[in-house]
Amino acid sequence: MLDPLFLSQLQFGLTTVYHFLFVPLTLGLVFIVAGFQTVWYKTGDVRFLQLTHFFGKIFLINFAMGVVTGIVQEFQFGMNWSDYSKFVGDIFGAPLAFEGLLAFFLEATFIGLWIFGWDRLKAGVHLATIWLTALGTTLSAYFIIAANAFMQNPVGYQINEVKGRAELVDIGAVLTNPVAVAAFPHTIFGALMFAGAVVLAVAAWHLSRNQNYDIMKPALRVGSWVVIGAFAMTFLTGDMLSLAMVAAQPMKMAAAEAQFDTMGPASFSIFTIGTPDGTSELFSIRIPYLLSLLSTHTWDGVVEGLNDLQAEYIVIYGPDEYRPILWVTYWSFRYMIGLGALSALIAAVGLWVTRKDRHPKKWMWKVAIWSAPLPMLAAIIGWIFTEMGRQPWLVFGLLKTRDGVSPGITGLEVLISLIAFTLVYGALAVVEFRLIRKAAQRDPKELVKVDSETGKPDMSLTTVY
């Protein structure tokens, strides 16, 4: 229980998952807020200005919490994973430097101008600030994904045998890593799904109480369409990512299906019950040819199996267990897809039952409200699949996880910091939830004061965040 490797893995997993609670909402909601403001700028419809301020406040609360948790997460590279930092620091530091010095500064600068520039900047210039904030947020995500992609598919490096580390030789290759190029749109559309689900849920909460109907009805429909459209694009980009995954890490795709033997054509199992050692299949529901189609884009493509890959990796990398924990990869892959599809289904039903000013039953509103976390859970489980499916590698083919942990750290030290992080993060979670709930339940008309004579908003009286 005091194994420093196990505790360091647990701590990094928990802090990463906790940080990612805030990332997708920030990535997705900034585009929805920018969209609301653009509609107001183009049409002058004050409802969309009210929606801009209303969801803009939720965006800012979440953004602040994401910054705090992201900074804490990076400390772990030096605290718990110093050998990893030593090995990949020359490469990993480059995209992180781009993220901090370019993307985050761009994001922070223009988010400040957006917050305080409502009555100081021209409307068009002010609108540009929120879109530049969205650009900075998106660039930030890309650079971080590029850094992570090196762990999945190392490129643009050479090994310095004297110093015992990987050194950067081609930053272009790192930034255009096929895994990064495929994972980036998948991440962004997944984030838009979560943001749309939050907008949908908040609007449903107000509409279920018969309040702010004229403002929240458009928000409900926008949120629903964003969820549906983003799910479709997440599915398509997921197909791109699966091809990149098969090329870079065939073991991960085999583990996702618990495919022990190489075969083609290969079927995809929706649900399987097998023996604990995975050698026998007791019951399975399968779709013929689907795994071949997902893995190779051909109906009869050959999919490599776990046993053959294990034997191949032993020859290449030496004796070890190279198969990840199968129940984690198998079920996380399915929960990721299932939760995303369920969220899109709820959004589609919501559009149908609210058409032409119809009023759904009370239980339907509750389903809409409580469906908000589904895309977030799908995204988190997707990252668990991505990272757990790479094991036992920290950097695939170059550095194993057990070789990256800090050599001088003790299990007790990690346990103490793990408990401290858990307590602090638990308190921050309560604060975050209460702040967002309070903001979500507020009357949007209070945020924008409208001149009673002209019917136009008075920007000097607009609530400052």
Characterise this structure.
It is a single chain. The protein has 15 helices and six strands. It is globular, with a radius of gyration of 24 Å. A hairpin with a 3-residue loop joins strand 5 (393-395) and strand 6. Helix 1 packs antiparallel against helix 3 (46-79). It has helices at residues 4-20, 23-43, 46-79, 82-116, 123-152, 171-175, 178-208, 213-248, 250-257, 290-296, 306-317, 326-353, 362-370, 373-388, 411-440; strands spanning 157-160, 165-168, 268-274, 281-287, 393-395, 399-400. The chain is mainly alpha-helical. The longest helix has 36 residues, at 213-248. The mean pLDDT is 85. The two termini are 46 Å apart.
Terminal CA distance:
46 Å
**Element string (H = helix, E = strand):** HHHHHEEHHHHEEHHHHHEEH
Helix content: 55-70%
Count every beta strand, where a strand is a DSSP E run of 2 or more residues.
6
Would you tell me the structural class of the helices and strands? mainly alpha
Strand composition percent = 5-15%
Alpha plus pi helix count: 15
* Mean pLDDT figure: 85
Order of strands in the sheet with the most strands? 1-2
Backbone CA Rg: 24 Å
* Low-pLDDT ranges: none
Largest sheet: 2 strands, antiparallel
Instruction: Please tell me what the overall shape is.
Output: globular
What keyword list fits this structure?
two-stranded antiparallel sheet; mainly alpha; 465 residues
State the gist of this model.
With 465 residues, the chain is mostly helical. Helix content is 69%, strand content 6%. It has 15 helices and six strands.
